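I had to read the description of the data format several times before I understood it. Each protein is reduced to its one-letter sequence and a matching series of backbone shape codes. The format is easy to grasp once an entry is in front of the reader. For illustration, here is how one protein appears when written out as sequence plus structure tokens:
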Amino acid sequence: MIIPVLLTGGSGTRLWPLSRKRHPKQFLQLAGDCSLLEDTARRMAALPDCGAVLAVAGEDHRFVVAEHLRRSGAGETQILLEPAARNTAPAVALAALQAKAEWGGDTILFVCPSDHVVPDQAAFAAAAEKAVAAARDGALVTFGVVPARPETGYGYLKAGAILPGGGRELVCFVEKPDAATARSYVESGEYFWNSGMFVFQAQAFLDELQSHAPAIFTACCEAIANSSRDSEFVRADAQSFAACPSDSIDYAVMEKTNRGVVVPLDCGWNDVGSWTYLAETRSVDARGNVSDGDVRLRNSDNCTVYSGNRLVAAVGLRDTVIVETKDAVLVAGADQLQEIKGLVAELEADGRSEVHQHPRVYRPWGSYESVDSGERFQVKRIVVAPGKKLSLQMHHHRAEHWTVVKGTARVTRGEDSFLLSEDESTYIPVGTKHRLENPGAIPLELIEVQTGSYLGEDDIVRFADDFGRQGSSAE
């Protein structure tokens, strides 16, 4: 049996402002009508002999990961929560230990980032078949992407002799090269882009981890041994995991093992690592420009422009990237995109909320979006999914006015419970217990007007909740 292990962490800062730390690129629709995570789950679930999808997620992303997996239709899923980000080696170790406990040590794990694009599904499936066969013989397999060009933004794998079954010996991992070195790698035919995907038996990986990174192995064993279940989530023990070193699977295991195998992969793979992705996947006009959304360009060449909310017009630009979202606009030289990560770090140091959260905030019951705000008031658009309900709650400092614009709401207000239809409204006084529920079959949409002395999301006291959230958590 093959267990797909989806790594859903990461901050996606290179695609800011569209990608945010609380809603990074794997949750965005960048390559079609579904998110990158949904697409990954479907692709993995389509592999022969595929079992449950095991996703490794952080606490902040747990509900949105669950929703995207549900929408993917990938079937049985399990979400393993890592208490803190410790890079890929501990994340994979937790998954391997959990898979061994659930399905046995000979279970094949197919470890895959959830934010990559794979256009050629047939080529991917053919390479996966070779990788699984090698893994059943005890190999630790990684996929080497056949390079389409000399690329300085990727790490490389050096491959050796061709092995029975179509794989090649894994000679070494190579850091991101300069342009001349990258060109020599491609010309040699011995080097591949490092895909970050791996296939191996759970026990085979754990044996190598214990040998080469014993501190990670020990901490992760204790974290899984002391784990707990919370609804659909498996929570690794935070106290045990706190002792775990941070390291990548490349450094901790794959560079040290003598069981490594490279399977070449030629499927149009792209890691969606920067805004140049749009230029590589969208149609280009006669002057080399790429646009997405409501965009008008005049006398401009080799520009990439993304509009998410409004008209973006540009005149007389060259080699420029423009990205527009509701609360932030990025304008950058095409040769300066590597500086976005540093810019985001500066914004975070200044306490800017645009680093972490989109104007649309996702919750396990749906989403809300800030429409307007000022002194002592805030206006939100709230969407509640069919059959979902918010917690039974109370606010110390704000009152709320609700007006239904689509669907039907069931409202609990104090001791009363009643239905509201479209164009109907109600008022929730300060300090009143209340709850909002969608009993219908279509999304419930309403406008909420908050008034009061303090309108922060942490002004909330929960008395009951379907999603296990406790106390005054702002989530």
The chain has a mean pLDDT of 93. Residues 88-103 form the longest helix (16 residues). The two ends are 37 Å apart (CA to CA).
